Amino acid sequence: MFHGDNGCRLVSMKTQIHSQHSAPPHDGSYDNEALSCSTIDITAPNSGEPHGGLRGSNEFILSDSGKKVTGDDQTGQLNMWLQRKARSAFSEKMIKKRLPILRWLPQYNSTDAIGDLVAGITVGLTVIPQALAYAGIAGLPAAYGLYGSFLGCIVYIVFGSCKDVPMGPTAIASLLTFQTAGGNVGKAILLCFLSGVVELLMGLLGLGFLVDFVSGPVSSGFTSAVSLIIVTSQVKDVLGISAKGTTFIEIWRNIFNDIHNVQVWDTFLGLTCIAVLLIMRIISGLKVGPADDELKSKNHRIINKLMWLIGTSRNAILVVVCGAIGYSFQASAVAPFKLIGDIPPGLPSLKAPPFSLTANETMSGTEESFMEMVSSLGSGLIVVPLIALMENIAICKAFSNGKPVDATQELIAIGLANIANSFVQGFPGTGSLSRSAVNNASGVRTPLGNIYTMALVVLSLLFFTPYFSYIPKASLAAVIIAAVVFMVEVKVVKPMWRTKKSDLIPGLGTFIACLALPLEMGILFGVGLNVVFILYHAARPKISVERLTSPGGAEYLIITPDRCLIFPSVDYVRNLVTKQSIRQSLPVVIDCSHVYGADFTAATVIDSITQDFARRDQPLFFYNLKPSVCAIFEGLSPADFVVYYREEHLDDLLKQRAYKPKEVISA
């Protein structure tokens, strides 16, 4: 065997075992550690030096200016690091990465403009009724939904990296806003600002990977539970009753307590609107003419496009019709429906979000300082940004066509958009999956489609807000129910059952927890449950045990773990190795081909195992151990720690250990 600086000992047919580390040369050079554990013989001819004399120096590194920076010069190294970061931050590639508009705007053409115009107007017809409805979910006046639907669109055009994302209120963000701010306008606006700040900081710090800790089953369970909670929260408006609450169980309990006050006309209108919306949704997917698009006539294409447009604009059409009905009853002073009420005309004033509340602005009747407001928002300051990122990344992945998604850039974009929205009294928002699907189907070409959506929202605020006050609450509730009921992800249960049944546990656990508890606690429970499964998986690696015969005829036991050796699993591995080795009384080989990492705990256990085998005078060898893992194990200088990399070397090792198989004495 030969010996490298990392202490890894390897079998060689040409050399003898030695265990002494060679002293480092006085010139400060060192043997290349990557070659120390290699079985490739690259010794140069007529050279006695290891690795053919290949050496590296730890004396100094050469800076870009040509100056030598020694290992002890910490200031020089820091300056070099800062210079590299500065050059990277202001390079053309990084600037275009952080300002995506610079990538697509120079190539913008008339075809892009037409596609963005059609898509932007179509999405605008969808976002206006949804914004009015989502404000109700957030427990805020309807106008605040529109306030959060236009300025963020402009910001996303500049910083957004996905053409299909229409920035604005969403059902999930609205529900989280209600559970966090409790329907207080000032707190909802401050939540929008602080959520944007948190998202921006997460983007600048590159923390987009945090969303990876929310697995698919947990995300499905969370989304499904939120959908049911939103549907439940709108049942009261369909029935025309009052039923407050933040959790699924609490809302239904209050609904049953007030069920005797059901309004017949509101119920009739709400159920009728739901049925109409579902029928129009089906119409949008219908096609006339031959199945092959090339065989369709011009009339077929026109009819199909009209049916799709009518189905896609179903929310706007329904709200306009119901608003006209409400206006006709209001004019006759006999309004059987509950209306959303007056909406202030015009654009909101541009001002900073409230950093304190007066006594008239709080439910308790006492003033609240900034710190008290932040304290009352609690964990929502973290949960709202993370869920917003989850929604946005889901959209980007759905329409990326296999291209990589830059989670960091999306965090920066939605963070800046929410900060901007807070200055026009908006509440937290992000990309909407339903509007993104409409955007994509409408043929959007770039994020500039958001400008036409913004224009429609601004026009509605300037000219149509007096008419919005006649819209019945039941019709807006129907819009929400018909949209979010399809967010319940029942379809994932069957494939999840077929692939890995245990994944249903965190998914179902998250679903139940989110229904019974506040949403932030529910998703934390789901993530925690998922982490428990991951840790259990790490703590119980699959280990195969085989009894084999070496080329020289010696029997031995080979034990193969299938993953890294880290602290949760090492005791389990040790017990199994000890049990099998005592039972078989054969030389033991631990095949480390799949062990790509280890930690200090694993090193201590390996040290203990080697001592146990030495006391029993039972050979123990490690096969195909990675150099990095070998260095970790050698850090404790374990006794009789032998690693080899070629199967034919096993017989030589057994001879060196003077191992003789025990004879079986028969009676």
From TrEMBL:
Task: Describe the location of the STAS domain by residue ranges.
Answer: 557-639
Q: Where in the cell is it found?
A: Membrane
Tell me one Pfam family matched here: STAS
Does the keyword Transmembrane helix belong to this entry?
A: yes
Q: Which GO terms describe its cellular component?
A: membrane
Protein's recorded name: STAS domain-containing protein
Biological process GO annotation list?
transmembrane transport
Q: Does the keyword ATP-binding apply?
A: no
Query: What is the membrane topology here?
Result: Multi-pass membrane protein
* Location of the SLC26A/SulP transporter domain: 115-505
Q: What is its main location?
A: membrane
Q: Which UniProt keywords apply?
A: Membrane, Transmembrane, Transmembrane helix
Q: What InterPro entries does the entry give? A: SLC26A/SulP_dom, SLC26A/SulP_fam, STAS_dom, STAS_dom_sf
